[in-house]
Amino acid sequence: MGGLSSSLSYPGMQRTSWSTYVTAAVAMYLSLCWLLRFRRRDTLAKKFNYPDKASFARMTNVDAQAILQYLAELEFPRIYEMSLQFALFKTYGIPTISSLLAATKEFSTPENASKRYADTGVLIAEFSSHPPRHERVVKAIARMNYIHSRYQKAGKISNDDLLYTLSVFVTEPISWINKYEWRDLTEMEICAFGVFWKSMGDAMGIQYQGVLAHSEWADGIEFMHDISAWAKSYENAYMVPAASNKQTADELVSLLLFYVPTYFKSAGGHLVGVMMGDLLRKAMIYPDPPESYFGIVSTVFAIRRFVTRHLLLPRYIPQRAIEEHPNPSTGRYNYKNYLVHPFYNNPGFLNRWGPEAWFVWLAGGKIPGSDGDKYIPQGYRFEEVGPNIMKGKGVEETNVIEQKLWAERPSGCPFAFAR
């Protein structure tokens, strides 16, 4: 009987043991996700050693760039990228900006809109992915300044246009990460945004005095608050409906929804409308989405936040937007991102035959190497980035700008050079 009793109880005991093991394994995995995510956050804080508000006044430009690069490539790559896309999109709600884009035909076709997006992405990635005094950073800023200078001399780009564009690159990533990511930014990380973009504004020659509430700031957080307050006031005054706003918005939204099946494009447009917010949506002359779509967006991001925080291990392979080294076949640099048209993307094996390439091909999109050299698969040189009418132009002027940047661009705290 004892043997029979033992044999009868064994299966139940085995099931209990397996359920215990599974429960323990799940608990250990959840704890590991939590531990590794927050340990990396805390390790970053210890590495840069800015423990309190007083220490933020000494944050260097080098450290600020390194912190932002970590956020963009490891901690929050997807939401960070989306925030920059939306920041650029938001500038199209200002008629003085959108009218210039419309007049220069940069949004006259989907390909032109993609090229403009790629050029902007390349320049931002270059000066975000390398230390402030890296040669590629200086070349990227110099090229950007040359492009802007042609329109500034013609009176088509104002200081306010540049300052507003700068402001959205400060504020939108902070807003998006705090709203949609698995954790909020730390004070040190927020300070880094202010330090980095203040330095970029200086390099662009943007004037703050007489425009922002202050002309000097103790640290990046003070600068962020000042430029954020100015931007909100500027939007209330100048983000108004205009045909050029809608023209640029329509071209970019069509790219964002390119892979959405036709039957669902209307729903996709409503979701984009939710992300715009009331003021920008009105300026773009877009209809208000049905109330249910606001709930859909909130629910999707809430689920993503929960899954990322509790169920996913942190990323350990950086997600870079640009290649670190020139293409050995062409001597040019390749871009890794694109919406629809693969400008500057290397037509390597995975880019043409990997899972993502198959999805793009089946959806009717373009893969790297499509249409020969149309999308410049060999990569970019800095003197060729920008509007087609400026391709290869301004080399001498850009060299002068580069020399000025080498002489003036600080690696230390930019608030020591406050305007």
Automatic annotation (TrEMBL):
The chain crosses the membrane at residues 20-38. InterPro entries: MPAB. One of its GO terms (molecular function) is oxidoreductase activity. It comes from the Eukaryota. Keywords: Membrane, Transmembrane, Transmembrane helix. This is ER-bound oxygenase mpaB/mpaB'/Rubber oxygenase catalytic domain-containing protein.
